[in-house]
Amino acid sequence: MVSWMERSSFIERWTLRVSMGLLAVVMIFPFVYVLAVSFSSPQDVSNSLVVLPVHPSLAAYNWVLSQTNALQGIEVSTFLVIVGTAINMLMTVTMAYGLSRSDVPGSKIILWLVLLTLLIAPTIITKYLVVRQLHLIDSIWSLIFPGAIAPFNLIVLRQFFMGIPRELIESAELDGASEFRILWNIILPLSKASLAVIALFYAVAQWNNFFDAVLFINSPQLEPIALVLRDIVLQGNVSQNNIVSGEYMPPSLTVQMAVVVITTIPILVVYPFLQKYFTKGVLTGSIKG
Amino acid sequence: MSSTNSTEPDEVLTSVPQHISMYNRRRFLHAAALTSGGLLLAACGGSTNTQLQPTTKVTTVPGAQITATMQAAVGKTFFPSGDPNVPDAYTAPPPLVQSVSYVPGDGSTVNALSVSFNPPPLPLSQNKYWQALNKRLNVNWQVQLPSGNEGYTEKAAALLASGDLPELFCIELFLSPSLAPALQQGAFTDLTPYLSGSELNNYPNLAKLSPISWKNTRFNGKIYGVPRARPVANGGLFFRLDLIKKVGMDVPKNADEFFQLTKAITQYGKGQAWALGNGGVVFGGGSPMYCMEMFGVPNNWRLEKNGTLTYMFQTDEFKEAMLYIRKLYAAGVFHPDYFTQTLTQTTTAFTTGKVASYVTGMAGLLGARQGAKTVDPQSDVGLLIPAGNKAVAWLAAGHFGTVGIPSQVGSDQNRVKMLLRILDYFCAPRFSLEGDFLATGIDGWDNTKASNGVKAMNATGSKEIGDLAYIENPAPIYYTPTEPSFALKLQEYAKQLQAIGITDPTAPLYSATATKQQTQLNQIYNDRFMRFVKGEDPETSVGGFASDFLSNGGTQIAKEYQDQLQK
Q: Which of A26, A240, B18, B247 places its Cα 20 to 30 Å from the Cα of B142?
């Protein structure tokens, strides 16, 4: 029997278990800490390390949901994830399919132009100037259209499409199928795993996008949740303008952690359902055959 | 100083807020002249000026009654400071007066860039306060509110580079040094002809801003923006005064006593609390600032008798102060995370009793005090005045930036005047009808009146008002309705700091080298400061601060400032 097929010794097994356990604790602890602090009262945060609040309180969540535009931010981010991801996928899929066909005139030039944007990232100022010239400043579409196609995702998808046997496409052409029919009925069904992971990449990017919002969004009602979170963190302290006689003001740290939890929950809820696609599709384009 | 070309002097003068006259005759006459000038503008218009629309005269309490009320209130609910650099204090609101006599705007849209330290307000369509503000200003007020200092820095840089500047632009040179070259190159309108001499009388509320705010916001000797006025005694060491009593000591009178106090408090904390916390900065702020004040370190620069400038690092006082801070650190009185704590972390630590002190702006003192009381009702937070016979207080410049008008707008004089009238409205005194609306919103909707008649902003108001009108602020006063007597405490602190205060002689000056080198110099200071205080560098290396400064542009910076001082 080869060595790797032999059963590990007791010491080896327990060393592995303990070290993996410690690693898991190190990785999970920050999330536990954030959750714990978000439910803490001032007495709890007076201790340097909060793992389990002794006097749990929902004051921070009440404050975030009633005094900030967190709920509105979640609505905006949800719109960005649904509509934005749909536009991202539409444009990426169609362009990737076009570039995967070697008989398309100019495909090599277009591919090089795409690669160029990957190599030379735009600066803040040039991006702002382009968006301003498109009259998209302070518009929700400024968070969708400028980044509608991510070059990396495009190349990954193109690579996968190129891996689909040419004979399938030729037989469909012989049967009189149009390009759109081929894409819809043959290419996309075979690409579910890749499409799911690309869609997940786009969705997470849309949910986390705050820097574009800092630059292009002026109206508070258009701020995505990531920007709301950033605002609260940057503002430092819970607003003193909100002091109303007798109103309880939760510690700033608990408010910030509450917003972090609110921002993270949707991704945590959705991810387990997409995990198998993510694991399968993340290797797309990297393994031949 | 009454108006010499008034056609209706008596009627004009009786409309002046007369309670001002009762404590300061000179201020009354000044205000009379300004207001009469404003009303003349409304009445006369001008051949090249837009005809102004007078606002509705609101019936308030008759002038004679206001005068009598304020006279009776002196020393009871109204405490004039007697010093133009120390705000007046109020423990109860006086009768409101009307401070703006004409409609500021012309019905157009006005875009502005401010900075915000509060959650954003509700959108216009859901915000009654905003709608009422638009009606009062007679404009469609559209203000960008980037969050915090970092948000402002990013937004200002992007707008400046794009050339797409809002008509009212909050200019914070400290946060966005790239604005200084823009000012040099004429990106903003020179407002000197509009806001100096008798022209300032056209904007009575702007004229009430302190002279030091106007002086320190000039750029190359010209006015490029309306100052956002702040008290000059504007920061200090917040301290848990109750802990001083608990450890059986008194308020320290010198550095040695302060050292003993911090040790005693840290020992009292038994490893769970420390005497000194950070203020979100490593150098130039925080507890070290208080220590430097105790040793008489200059406020950035010292102007010597021979006209030369000496930077703080070059002084013996600085070296003494650094050795003292090193001694404090060795005694273990700093919070263990001192060098990495953010302002939020420090504030939370202070509120929850993990640190007994930290340095920040005085505007936060009441909030810190009330926050500490939610955790420990016996807590007593106040300010420690720098102690010792050499002690000084570093006075601030009296402003937090200015509001400028881009030069694209400057060619239209009427537009500039309209924008200045809007800023004038935002600078309405706190106890004017306009100022009361700006601060507390719509009566019965944004604020609630307590049984004692004092209005306080309610939850609706806090969501609607936000920082919509934060772009400009009136001349500061002390008024703390949630703890009325604390306003007097704030005024007392300001007077004590003013008494030992020293100013930075370079505050109104501009150095291109200082702007260019600022980030690098801060990094060098922070690194050296940490190493020195922690004991990683020897004591003899304390001279390295000065040599670092001089070799990284300091000599050139001093020359640039001196050239301007000698003009």
A: A240
Q: Are strands B309-311 and B301-303 parallel, antiparallel or unpaired?
A: antiparallel
What is the four-CA torsion angle of B286, B299, B400, B384, rounded to 10 degrees?
A: 50
Helices (H), B305-458: 316-330, 343-351, 365-375, 407-410, 413-426, 433-440
Which amino acid is residue A135, in one-letter code?
Answer: H
Number of domains chain A contains: 2
**Minimum mean pLDDT range among A46-60, A64-78, A240-254, B251-265:** A240-254
B161 touches chain A (CB under 8 A): yes
Domain membership of residue A19 as a residue range: 1-57
Residues of A in contact with B450 (CB under 8 A): 245
Q: What is the CATH number of the domain that holds A106?
A: 1.10.3720.10
Suggest the residue from A38, A43, A44, A46 to mutate for an interface test with chain B (most B CBs closer than 10 A): A46
CATH class of B96-231+397-471: alpha beta
The pLDDT of residue B12 is 28
> Is the same domain home to A76 and A48?
no
One-letter amino acid of A172? A
Q: Which of A92-96, B7-11, B276-280 is predicted most confidently?
A: A92-96
pLDDT value of position B85: 87
Q: What is the pLDDT of residue B247?
A: 93
* Pair (A29, A160) in one structural domain: no
Cβ contacts (< 8 Å) between A132 and chain B: which residues?
162, 164
**pLDDT tens-digit series, residues A217-228:** 888 889 998 888
- Which tokens hold the place of B226? 């309306």
d(CA B133, CA B140): 9
Specify whether A84 is located in the same domain as A31.
no
Classify strands B109-113 and B393-394 as parallel, antiparallel or unpaired: unpaired
DSSP state of B413: H
A4 and A30 in a single domain? The answer is: yes
> B235-394+511-565: same fold as B96-231+397-471?
yes
Domain ranges across chain B: 96-231+397-471, 235-394+511-565
CATH number of B235-394+511-565: 3.40.190.10
Specify whether A116 is located in the same domain as A158.
Answer: yes
User: What radius of gyration do chain B's Cα atoms show?
Assistant: 25
A 10 A CB-CB count for B36 gives 24
What's the pTM? 0.79
The string of pLDDT tens digits covering residues B32-70 is 333 333 333 333 333 345 567 777 666 566 777 777 888
Distance in angstroms (rounded) separating the CA atoms of residues B481 and B455: 8
Task: Please give the pLDDT value at position A101.
Answer: 86
Whether A77 and A186 map to the same domain: the answer is yes
Any CB–CB contact under 8 A between B118 and chain A? Answer: yes
| % residues pLDDT > 70 (chain B) | 89
Q: Span B356-367, mean pLDDT?
A: 87
The length of chain B in residues reads 567
